[in-house]
Each structure stands twice: as structure tokens, then as C-alpha cells.
Amino acid sequence: xxxxxxxxxxxxxxxxxxxxxxxxxxxxxxxxxxxxxxxxxxxxxxxxxxxxxxxxxxxxxxxxxxxxxxxxxxxxxxxxxxxxxxxxxxxxxxxxxxxxxxxxxxxxxxxxxxxxxxxxxxxxxxxxxxxxxxxxxxxx
Length: 140
Prior knowledge:
about 50% helix; 3 helices; three-stranded antiparallel sheet; mainly alpha
């Protein structure tokens, strides 16, 4: 009698094919969800870079207001934290932290002076895949 009961239980189980179909469906669903999650994370980092570039731009504008010019290419963004030699009107630091921030991908921001299209300067993040985010893009 126990053997007959065991056979009935075995007949009520899932087949290997049904289990494989369910696993494939779960894999497809997880890949779609994971892809959307990763894209949102990268978008959030790009948004954070844009905000940080705007903040750096405001500090550069304050530097120009007090000193009379933007930092030179060689002085770079470090001029917002420590006074370049020979600047009597430097009243910084113009950036609250002790160092120039890194972008959300942990790369150094690039400073170009002059910037593109006649802009006085440009602050650039390399982004995660080489797609640059710059102050010129933000101002458009």
C-alpha cells in the first residue's frame, strides 16, 4: 500500500521540462528588472555629476567675482581651495571641502579654460563609459 501511495505522489510532481520553463522565465524577468535597476543607477550618477558641475561653476563664478578672472588652465580647480601665488584678492577657499571633488564614478573633474563655444571655462566629467558631461551641456 505504501508503494502505491508513493507512485501517486510521484505522478503529481512537476516534470523537468516544466521546471526548466519556470527557471527560464524567472531568468528573463530578473534580467529585465536588473537592467532597469542598473540604468536608473547610472542616470542617478549622471544627475549627481550635473549638480556637482553646477556647484563647481558657482564656486568658479565667485572666484572670478573676487579675483577678477577665472583660474587659469594650469591653476585648475585647485585654485578654489588654495590660493595661487600672486593673487592678492583671493578670499577663499571657494569650495567647502579640503579637496576638489571627484565625479560619481570616482574620476577627477577636468577643467578647461577657455571652454567650448566661447564659454569662459568648462568643467567636464568623463562619465562611466566615456560619454562626457560638461558645464557646456548643462547651460544649453
